[in-house]
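[Meeting: bench + compute handoff]

Bench side (C.D.) handed over the final construct sequence. Compute side (W.E.) agreed to return the predicted structure before the next meeting so the bench team could plan truncations. Sequence as handed over:
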Amino acid sequence: MNKIKLLNISLIFSLVLCMSISVYAAGLNNRIKDTTLRLHVVANSNSQEDQELKLRIRDVILEGVDGIFQAQSAKEAKETAREQTEKIRKIAREEIAKSGKTYNVEVLVSKEYFETKEYGDFVLPAGMYDAVKVIIGEGGGKNWWCVMFPPMCSGAVEDSEIVTYYEHEAGPGAALIIGGTKKKVELRFKSLDVIGAFIEKMK
């Protein structure tokens, strides 16, 4: 077998390997999103008063919700969140009233786009996630968000439990995606995009 044939075989093998890795990583990325529930609180405005109110509403919601943090799966957490939208709205309105405001509150569970975000030692890739969205008043202020399930917001789980959860629910290798820094995660997926584009050109 001459060198050209060996080179061709190596190239084909490399392309197949890269394609397999790209497809598997993309699947992991999607499953991480599917097995996550996030909380998204939007302030009425960017005034200091409204921003402080946003954080107080965040706190009372995290203290007042039942069942979401104790859920055994993301599916159960999402179902529980949908059942409790009115309760969450009531909790938020009570805090608003304490502050002497009359803002309306909208609470819904919907698909939201999130940028790549660091949570302590973990990073969640950018994309569409199910989220409990709380819009205060005009909803014209800065956002606050966290992860309700697995319960990173409440600190109810250890780092090792988060890794175990995603490795089990999303699949082996999930820890490589959620571990590291925001820049590393973005670089991984940019690399996969480049590989995918190259493979498409080769077809």
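W.E. noted at the follow-up: Confidence is low (pLDDT under 50) at residues 16-24, 181-203. C.D. will use this when planning the next construct.
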